[in-house]
Amino acid sequence: xxxxxxxxxxxxxxxxxxxxxxxxxxxxxxxxxxxxxxxxxxxxxxxxxxxxxxxxxxxxxxxxxxxxxxxxxxxxxxxxxxxxxxxxx
Length: 89
Hints:
By secondary structure, the protein is mostly helical. It has one helix at residues 3-68. The radius of gyration is 37 Å and the shape is rod-shaped.
């Protein structure tokens, strides 16, 4: 085999090995990124369930307090029929 063919074989072999290593590194990085997305989704679902549970608890407390206490939805009228700061002449 000539020297040029040996160098060509060596060069292409090194390039092929470098490509294989690069592809494996790329696949590992992609897999890690996808796993991080799954972990983030699970955390978001946990937070959402926690907030929903807090909301349900607050709603139940509100209902319980409404049974116990008198709650008025209207604001009582101002005495004299005139608003604050109005001059009645």
